[in-house]
TrEMBL record:
Any GO molecular function: cytoskeletal motor activity
Keyword Membrane: yes
PANTHER family xref list: FLAGELLAR MOTOR SWITCH PROTEIN FLIG
Signal peptide as annotated in the record: none
Topological type in the membrane: Peripheral membrane protein
Keywords: Bacterial flagellum, Cell membrane, Cell projection, Chemotaxis, Cilium, Flagellar rotation, Flagellum, Membrane
Family to which this protein belongs: Belongs to the FliG family.
Domain Flagellar motor switch protein FliG C-terminal: 232-342
InterPro entries from the UniProt entry: Flg_Motor_Flig (IPR000090), Flg_Motor_Flig_C (IPR023087), FliG_a-hlx (IPR011002), FliG_M (IPR032779), FliG_N (IPR028263)
Gene Ontology cellular-component terms listed: bacterial-type flagellum basal body; plasma membrane
Pfam families named in the record: FliG_C, FliG_M, FliG_N
Protein's UniProt name: Flagellar motor switch protein FliG
């Protein structure tokens, strides 16, 4: 009679809904939705359910119209009779409440229940800001850092790379060229590992990191206090002290940090009396250079007028000098916060 195996593909599925299991009926509904071009978010199902559904669809052949109609009618009846459903377990509840409860509470519940956060872990990594990504790029292995940068948007990856020390940035850039052979499974494991590290990081109660907070405080401290604090930081943590120095912006930093074209904006923002006092108080080499820089980047008529007022101002008390110079710094910070002024990096010249 010959080999009848090829005819097995035409073997019918159960002839009526009553002969079908609930899983088979679910497979029929999914196949029907897909055949009509509807987007069924199957990837949100657990891996084992996706696999079982795939095998089930592969094992079924065909059903007649009356059977299909019966399955659909039964499905519609169940939907109409359904009042409300609740998610199963903590994982489902967290999915329903995503964005409705605080990230801190969600992370704690997920950790206590041993629940893996659903979805692509790389989506969570890509959504993070550079302040959270930079420590990972600095502490993880070169290979892991290269994979992470490869999964970021190009602009974000470039910005992150520019914040890393030169030798490490070059090694990571080279390692990126070696990531093409990584398997999907390994990529997923790396993403899960990085995402779990990030989930484990406590949410900061401050809107700025320690360097920015200390720098902001020292910006408006007296010069003596600032020097004393930085000296103490040098003794306890020289690296932190150096980063704080870079975050500090004082009156004498104006020539290096404020572009010449922005000086007129600053002058208009500062109280005229405070500006005259600040310029009159300049007596050291750095302060004098700052005064010359400010006067040299405004109209000649205004500069001459200010020089006359400075000469008439006479000697300035240290307390008044600090207040006036801090007033100029505050004006610059306000312009920066409003997006009307962009501070230079401090070690680069202004471009065009």
């Amino acid at each position: 009679m010959g080999d009848l195996a090829p005819l097995a593909q035409f073997a019918p599925s159960p002839a009526s809904p009553g002969q079908m299991t609930r899983k088979q009926k679910a497979a029929v509904i999914i196949r029907l939705l897909l055949s009509h071009g509807l987007d069924v978010p199957l990837k949100e199902l657990p891996d084992e359910v996706q696999a079982e559904l795939t095998l089930l669809l592969g094992s079924m052949r065909h059903i007649d119209r009356s059977t299909l109609s019966g399955v659909v009618d039964e499905f519609v009846e169940e939907l109409e009779a359904l009042g409300l459903t609740f998610p199963r377990g903590v994982a489902g509840a967290l999915s329903v409440l995503d964005g409705k409860i605080s990230p801190h509470t969600a992370a704690r519940l997920r950790k206590e229940a041993g629940v893996r956060q659903t979805g692509d872990p790389w989506d969570r990594v890509r959504a993070l800001d550079l302040k959270k990504l930079q420590p990972i790029a600095e502490s993880e292995s070169i290979e892991i850092a290269a994979v992470m940068l490869s999964k970021l948007d190009t602009g974000k990856a470039a910005e992150l790379l520019s914040k890393l020390p030169g030798p490490r940035a070059r090694r990571i850039a080279y390692a990126i060229s070696l990531t093409s052979g990584i398997s999907p499974e390994a990529l997923d494991r790396i993403g899960l590992s990085l995402a779990s590290q990030l989930d484990a990081q406590p949410d900061s109660v401050f809107d700025k990191d320690p360097v920015e907070r200390v720098g902001a405080i020292l910006n408006f401290s007296t010069a003596a206090t600032r020097d004393d604090v930085l000296e103490g930081l040098d003794e306890t943590d020289s690296d932190f002290a150096e980063r704080v120095r870079k975050a500090i912006f004082t009156f004498t930093n104006i020539p290096a940090r404020v572009a010449p074209r922005d000086i007129p904006k600053v002058v208009r923002q500062v109280d005229p009396g405070m500006l005259v006092t600040a310029l009159a108080a300049c007596n050291g080499a750095e302060e004098t250079a700052t005064a010359d820089y400010v006067l040299g980047n405004m109209s000649a008529r205004l500069a001459d007028s200010l020089r006359e007022e400075v000469n008439d101002r006479g000697k300035v008390k240290p307390k008044d000098a600090e207040e006036a110079m801090n007033s100029v710094v505050s004006a610059i910070r306000e312009l920066e916060a409003a997006g009307e002024l962009l501070l230079l990096a401090g070690d680069e010249d202004e471009e065009g």
